[in-house]
Specification:
Largest sheet: 6 strands, mixed
Helix content: 25-40%
Shape: globular
Radius of gyration: 17 Å
C-alpha cells in the first residue's frame, strides 16, 4: 500500500477520515481537534512537522458558523451580534494558523484542501482568496444529496451545497459531476439537520480516501514536480 498522510485541520475527535479502513492500509491520519486547539503555537509546530512529510494532504474543515447565510437572521436575535463576533474572532485565529501550515505544506510540494458550504461568506474574504490563488487551489462544487445526506426527521435527501478548494487534481476530478441530478423534493436541512450537515456521509469519506490514494500513488505526486 502507498504510504500517505492526511492532516485534518479542525475536525471532530471521532472523524471518519481518521477511522476509515484506509488508515489501516497505508494512510496515516493526524487529527487537529478542539482538544489540540489549532490556535496554539505548539499545535502549529506539530502540524508543520507533519505536513512536510512525503505524500501529505492538509484537509481543512474549519468552523464556518460566522460565514453562514443564517447569520443574517441570527444577528437580529438577542445576543446575535456578540455571538457573531465570537465566531469570527475564532475563525480569524484558526485561519491565521491554517495559512501558516498550508503554505508550509505547499512549499514542501504537498497538497491542500479546504471545505466549506458553497454559500459561506468566508470564501469571499480577500485573505482567503489570496491564499487559494497563491497555492494554486481550484474549486469543485457538489451536493450532499448525491452522497446520501438525509434528514433525521423524514429521511428525505438534503441538497446541501458544498465546495472544496484544492490543488489535488484527483480530488477535483473525483467530486466533479456530483451536483443534484433531480431528486425531486428535498428536506430543507434545518433544525437538528443543520448540525447533521456539518458531518460528511460515508460515501464522501470513501471518495476522499479513494481520490487521495490515487493522487499519492502518482510518481509525480508533488505539486512542485
Amino acid at each position: 500500500p502507498t504510504k500517505r498522510r492526511i492532516l485534518e485541520w479542525c475536525c471532530g475527535p471521532d472523524s471518519k477520515i481518521g477511522n476509515h479502513p484506509c488508515t489501516r492500509r497505508g494512510c496515516e491520519v493526524l487529527r487537529i481537534t478542539e482538544k489540540e486547539d489549532a490556535t496554539r503555537e505548539a499545535t502549529v509546530k506539530q502540524a508543520k512537522a507533519f505536513v512536510v512529510q512525503p505524500r501529505c494532504l492538509l484537509f481543512s474543515s474549519m468552523p464556518c458558523t460566522g460565514g453562514s447565510p443564517w447569520q443574517r437572521i441570527n444577528v437580529k436575535k438577542p445576543g446575535g451580534y456578540a455571538n457573531l463576533r465570537r465566531h469570527r474572532k475564532l475563525f480569524n485565529a484558526l485561519w491565521e494558523n491554517f495559512e501558516i501550515v498550508a503554505r508550509h505544506a505547499h512549499a514542501a510540494g504537498n497538497f491542500v484542501a479546504i471545505e466549506w458550504p458553497k454559500g459561506c461568506s468566508y470564501w469571499l474574504l480577500p485573505k482567503v482568496k489570496k491564499c487559494c490563488a497563491d497555492l494554486g487551489l481550484e474549486s469543485v462544487d457538489f451536493h450532499g444529496c448525491m452522497f446520501g445526506l438525509k434528514s433525521v426527521y423524514n429521511g428525505k435527501l438534503i441538497m446541501k451545497p458544498w465546495r472544496i478548494f484544492t490543488n489535488s487534481p484527483e480530488l477535483l476530478k473525483g467530486f466533479q459531476g456530483h451536483t443534484c441530478c433531480g431528486h425531486g423534493e428535498h428536506a430543507p436541512g434545518a433544525g437538528k439537520d443543520t448540525k447533521l450537515t456539518e458531518n460528511y456521509t460515508d460515501s464522501m469519506f470513501d471518495l476522499i480516501h479513494k481520490c487521495w490514494k490515487k493522487q499519492a500513488s502518482k510518481p509525480d505526486t508533488s505539486t512542485t514536480a
